[in-house]
Design brief:
Histidinol-phosphate aminotransferase; binds pyridoxal-5'-phosphate; 14 strands; alpha/beta; globular; amino-acid biosynthesis; Aspartate Aminotransferase, domain 2; about 375 residues; seven-stranded mixed sheet
């Protein structure tokens, strides 16, 4: 044990540091990023604006211009939007404001790891509830164990619940009625993470008027292709949005990120092209993956696929890496022997398919 461990909070001793893979690769499919960088002229427009700003001064702490632009994109009032340094910061703010010591956070798992990690850091107790997985005539389906989740609902102390929609790492939506049933019976904040909204099109934003305790999480890291600039947002009713300002770091979003987000939102034609290209590549990739024996492909409404292998996933992961393709090994109950990989460009997807065929044939 390192000598400084005795200074660490006891409840954090078991936490392992989050260190995303940094293996060198030609095709990076491990983080669900967009495979398309911003076009050069759009980058130049961002830079032309950025360079006129005073780097020595703090920039807008409430991201007014971004919220105004998002209001147009979402068709909602700017006061119902809060902007953070990535959706990750939004998740942090939620658990800091609404979880913490003595509180509980309910997470249907497998899910995005930040929900659990940040909840623990906030001092809250985490309740992980496994998803159900069943095969129907239409294919595999992951669903919420509504009965089991509701058994953990408390009437006396407020709780927090995260629902990822569509779910990372499993890839698809849960039933809308199941989520509504959960929200209806819940005493606390329900956070619906719609990081992949643009690839599937379903949202709970239009339910905000029914539920004062609902918050929607979105990001610029996926279809908007700005993962490197760290910018995300929350949508909720004004009163709930006000609470975010109590826990946020004062100047949470850099001037560069704010300006980039605004300029990308002015170029929705480009975003729409990226969106269509990724969706069409996803459908193509799905058909090809399903044609490879030894792989179970789960349905996806996002920009990635979760696949289960008959042979060892560590072997497939390593062999793909040797061919220059970096994928992700999801952790937790239910995702044993699976890999998750993002939808790349059509060319990258071809290399992936060719590589998988070789690896599975040679095993
Ligand atoms: C990628 C992702 C995010 C986005 O995180 P950022 O911090 O905005 O990059 C949020 N939630 C889920 C489920 C994700 O997969």
């Amino acid at each position: 044990m390192k000598s400084t461990s005795k200074y660490l909070r006891e409840d954090l001793l078991k936490l392992s540091p989050y260190k995303p893979a940094k293996e060198p690769c030609q095709i990076k499919l491990n983080s669900n990023e967009s495979p398309y960088d911003l076009p050069e002229d759009l980058k130049m427009r961002i830079w032309e604006r950025v360079k006129k700003e005073s780097f020595n001064c703090y920039y807008d702490p409430s991201c007014d211009e971004v919220r105004q632009a998002l209001a147009g994109y979402l068709g909602i009032e700017p006061d119902k939007i809060f902007v953070g340094s990535g959706a990750d910061e939004i998740i942090y703010d939620i658990v800091l404001a609404f979880a913490g010591p003595g509180r509980e956070v309910i997470i249907p798992v497998p899910a995005f790891p930040s929900y659990e990690t940040f909840s623990i850091i906030s001092g809250a107790r985490v309740i992980n509830i496994p998803l159900l997985l069943e095969k129907y005539a239409t294919g595999w389906k992951w669903s919420l164990d509504v009965l089991k989740i509701k058994k953990y609902f408390k009437k006396d102390t407020p709780q927090v619940m995260f629902i990822c929609y569509p779910n990372n790492p499993t890839g698809d939506y849960f039933e809308e009625e199941d989520i509504i049933e959960l929200i209806d019976g819940f005493n606390g904040i329900v956070a619906i993470d719609e990081a992949y909204y643009e690839f599937g099109g379903r949202t709970f934003i239009n339910r905000l008027s029914d539920y004062p305790n609902l918050v929607i999480i979105r990001t610029f890291s996926k279809v908007f292709s700005l993962a490197g600039l760290r910018i995300g947002y929350a949508v909720a009713n004004e009163a709930l949005i006000e609470e975010f300002y109590k826990v946020k770091p004062p100047y949470n979003v850099s001037l560069f990120s704010q300006i980039a987000a605004v300029e990308v939102l002015k170029n929705m034609d480009w975003v729409e092209k990226v969106r269509r290209k990724i969706i069409s590549a996803r459908e193509n990739l799905k058909t090809k993956l399903e044609g490879i024996p030894g792989i179970t492909v789960y349905p996806s409404s996002a920009n990635f696929f979760l696949c289960r292998f008959e042979i060892s996933r560590d072997y497939v992961y390593q062999k793909l890496l040797e061919k220059g393709i970096l994928t992700k090994k999801p952790e937790g109950e239910g995702v044993e022997n699976t890999l998750r990989f993002s939808v790349g460009t059509p060319k990258q997807n071809e290399v992936l398919i060719r590589s998988l065929k070789e690896i599975l044939k040679g095993s």
